[in-house]
Structure formats: structure tokens, C-alpha cells
Amino acid sequence: MNKSLLNIVILLGLGIFTAGCALNKSKSAKMQLVWSDEFNYSGLPDTTKWGYDIGDGCPNVCGWGNNELQLYSGHRLENARVKDGHLIIEARKETKGKFAYTSARMVTKRKGDWKYGKIDVRAKLPKGRGIWPAIWMLPSDWAYGGWPASGEIDIMEHVGYLPDSLYGSVHTKLFNHIQGTQVTGGIMSKTTSTDFHNYGIEWDAEKIDFYYDDYKYLTFNNKHQGSEAWPFDRTFHLILNIAVGGNWGGKMGVDNTIFPQEMQVDYVRIYQ
Questions:
Q1: Catalytic site residue 38?
Q2: Could you tell me the pTM of the whole model?
Q3: Three-class secondary structure assignment of the chain
Q4: Which end of the chain is more exposed for a tag (fewer CB within 10 A), N or C?
């Protein structure tokens, strides 16, 4: 086992976890691949698999609800492209109207929506103070109401001012960061921006397991307390993005000397 995997940090979690020995390999060998993008082409991302969230979230949740600073573009090679076998999402320091930064937020909504399964994303992350990359999921139909009632699954979040830390989280009506009750697990790695790693979940009707390089570091269990605690019985879609600044990512400011910054994605694979 990589020594970095022994350095486990559990932050803001509601459960108790044991470092090192709590890591369990994935048990999904019998699952079948149902959706993937191997990025074995060039140019704009495949429009049969990927769409874009565009703008700054206004008028509903300006700054995407987190006071983020970037403008998300669509169908723009400077911010999202496939090259040399990788999807590249790039955050740039450039002026677009009132915005000082641009980036991309790629979504599979209505092109890839799933209830249960294994989500496996192999990626190399950007670095630098003010960067906030994420691999995460939102509900496709918001059946239980607006955020956080219908749920959110953060497969991987990273903030640049904590360069050796990665986080997985779950948000629901009962468990969310507004109330300080979200369930969050953290894992330390010194190679997030130099090497590719696998970020994923295994999700079924009873639990969501979070994995880093196929080692489990967090489990969120369905305690059968209704949708306020477990809204994860509906379809969700995948989101890949780099935010700039924001309530968490910009907590220590933004270093404007770091740009441009890229998240490179080797593949996305969904199993059920």
C-alpha cells in the first residue's frame, strides 16, 4: 500500500473511522460497464455524453451558491477539450465581461443518469491557492425539493490551499454544510497534481462507499430515516469542474500567478 494512504484524516464526519486498517478494496468485480468516455479522440468533448453548466449560476444561485469567481463557458476549447487521450478542463485568468476567470463545468445530465452503481474517474488535479476542483453528483430530477433536500454526492473535492488533502462528502436535508452536519471524510496524498489517481464511489440502496485508488475511506449508510436523510434512491448525474475562489476554495485568497490550471481526466467509467 502507498504510504500516503496510511495518512487518513476524517473531517466534520458523523462516523468514526480507523486509519490504515479501515481501507478496503473495491468489491465490484461483478459489475458491468454501462457508460464510459475513454477520451480517445480530439477536440471538443463528445456532445452525446457531455453538456455544460454555463455562466455564474444567476439569477437562481449567483456564484453557484458559493460566491465563486469564475465564468463557466460552453463549447470553448480554451476551457474544455480532449487531447492526447485526456479530457482537459482548464481554469484561466482572463477577463470576460465582469469576470476575471473562466473555466468549465462538464455535466452528464440527460446523457448519463444513474441510480446506484460504481463511479470511477481517473484524474490528475490542478494546484495552487484559490483552485477548487471537484468530481461530484447532483440529482437529475430534484424529486425531494431544492438543495440540499434532493441530495449531493461529492466524490472528490480539493482546495488548493490544502495541497495534500482530498475530501468526499454527502449532503442531504439533515446532513449538510449549512448546518455543519454534513458527513465528510478526508484522505491525504502528496501526488494529487503530479500523478493520476482514481476517485470513485460504490452506491447501492444501503450505502455509499468512497474510494481513493480503490481503497475505501468513508461510508455513508442508509439508516432508513426517510428522504431527509437518504434521498439517494433517485437518478443522479456526474459533474466535473474547476471553480476559482468561493467560500471554501477562496478562503485563503487566490494566487493569480498560478494560471492557467488544468484538471486532466484519463477516463470516466460507470458500472452497474
A1: no
A2: 0.92
A3: CCHHHHCEECCCCCCCCCCCCCCCECCCCCCCEEEEECCCCCECCCCCCCEECCECCCCCCHHHHCCECEEECCCCCCCEEEECCEEEEEEEEEEECCEEEEECEEECCCCCEECCEEEEEEEECCCCCCEEEEEEEEECCCCCCCCCCCCEEEEEECCCCCCCEEEEEEECCCCCCCCCCCEEEEEECCCCCCCCEEEEEEECCCEEEEEECCEEEEEEECCCCCCCCCCCCCCEEEEEEEEEECCCCCCCCCCCCCCCEEEEEEEEEEEC
A4: N
